[in-house]
Structure prediction request, 306 residues.
Amino acid sequence: MSSMLERELLFVTGKGGVGKTTLAAALGLLAAERGLRTIVVELGDQGRLPALFGLPPEEPGMETLLFDRLWSISIDPDQALLEWLQQLGGRVSGRVLASSGTFQYFAAAAPGAKELVSMVKIWELTQGERWQRRAGGYDLVVIDAPSTGHALGLLHSPRTFGAIARVGPIAGQAQRVRELLEDPARSAFLGVALATDMAVTETLELQDGLLQGLGRTLDRVLLNCLLPSRFTAAELERIARLDGSEIGRSAAAAARAAHDRARFQHNQLARLRRRRFEVLGVPFLFGAELDLPAVQRIAAHLRRRL
Prediction:
């Protein structure tokens, strides 16, 4: 994992609802603690990261300081498109082209266009020389990516759009993004899953999609919300024999349920390891809400295992 944090780009994805945003924030915090100037990227109008750090939401496109050496940004494709066009053709001509009905129709209709624009902005964040000269570059860009299907569409967009625009500045930019994504020395892919059948199956599908589209594989899988194995089978038997009261029966049933749940999760972990994934378990956090202390606890867990 330490080598993953030393690359330019860390792409975090998986099934929806598995905790990608929280883990992306924890990875960003860990990188920042190690002295890396880091930004965590959300796509669309998510804007959930500032709230995790107890901060008010920011406008899309704003690079927001969350913590020492840690920023966040929510990328709006339309705003990113304007920035890109201004960089290609100058401020005035960029605005004129962006407001053109013909160009807007093309951007909406061309396969992978909006996804490519988002990827170009992500690529720009990795550069030491930014489009806006006063903006600083970042040592690490962590992508809190959408769920698996949309994430693969995002990753495949440079190749998809490159098949349409084969020459010119757009083709050149698509190629630069592809080079970043296809180079294991510059980028890493991290799958996040819960220990459920559907989430693990989607992780396997993510692996296949990465291999087919980029010739890459997942560098690591984070298996989130793992429960501890608290009881052995012998201990469960002893608990069941403690007494026959209602409280005793309830305690025995709760212990059995916890044991069965942990065993099921272990079976899902075994599915991943049979496919030769490098898996890191993240424990379930018992608490009312996810906030900065929770993110810091996860970062501390990751720190001890890296």
